[in-house]
Amino acid sequence: MEANTVSQSKVEIAQVMMPEHANPAGNVHGGNLLKLVDQAGAIVAARHTHSNVVTASVDRFDFISPAYIGNLIFVKASMNYVSRTSMEVGVRVEAECLKTGTHTHIGSAYLTFVALGKDDKPTDVPGLILETESEKRRYDDAKKRRENRLLLAKPHRHRQQACIIRPEKLK
User: Fold this and answer.
1) For all residues of the chain together, what is the average pLDDT?
2) Separation CA 169–CA 81 (nearest Å)
3) Bigger pLDDT: 167 or 108?
4) What is the mean pLDDT of residues 8-32?
5) Starting at the edge strand that comes first in sequence, how are the strands of the sheet with 11-16 ordered?
6) pLDDT, position 153
7) CB under 8 Å to 40, separation ≥6 — which residues?
């Protein structure tokens, strides 16, 4: 299993916010932004592992500024850290007013993803090649966050649902 660079999996999604993304006052619903955050993070994790990935956790997301109908939303995501079967992806959300060109930082989050093998159980992920000082700093910061998450984690046991319909079984 070859290690990958951060740049090999990073992604930037852009989407114009339309009325269906917002409330009657024109403010974009937070859930729409969070969905984009999760999608961008999952793309990065899947590109890094070339496997199915699932979201294990999302660190807090503070809405720093609102987004409005007509804003162009940028969701920028890149790999921060990899462990044996899990990885942390950093995501930054910005809004651009297309009338003025003003960019506003909407919020940021760290998401943890787990790679799944063909048996739907956690599988090993490729290593991460760090090329810049910024990538090394983000890696070290993410490692500390992971250690803190593990210290605070409550013991739990994953329970497989009794009824799971797999897309390949529908054929």
Assistant:
1) 92
2) 34
3) 108
4) 96
5) 11-16, 72-82, 86-96, 103-116, 52-58
6) 76
7) 11, 12, 13, 75, 76, 77, 89, 91
**Best CA proximity match to 19, nearest among 60, 56, 69, 55:** 69
Residue 113 scores a pLDDT above 80: yes
Q: Extract the runs of DSSP E, i.e. beta strands, from the chain.
A: 4-5, 11-16, 52-58, 72-82, 86-96, 103-116, 128-129
Q: How do beta strands 52-58 and 103-116 pair?
A: antiparallel
Measuring CA to CA, which residue among 8, 157, 159 is closest to residue 82?
8
Quick one: CA dihedral 13, 56, 122, 6, positive or negative?
positive
Domain 4-154 has CATH 3.40.225.10: no
Return the structure tokens found at 107: 């919020």
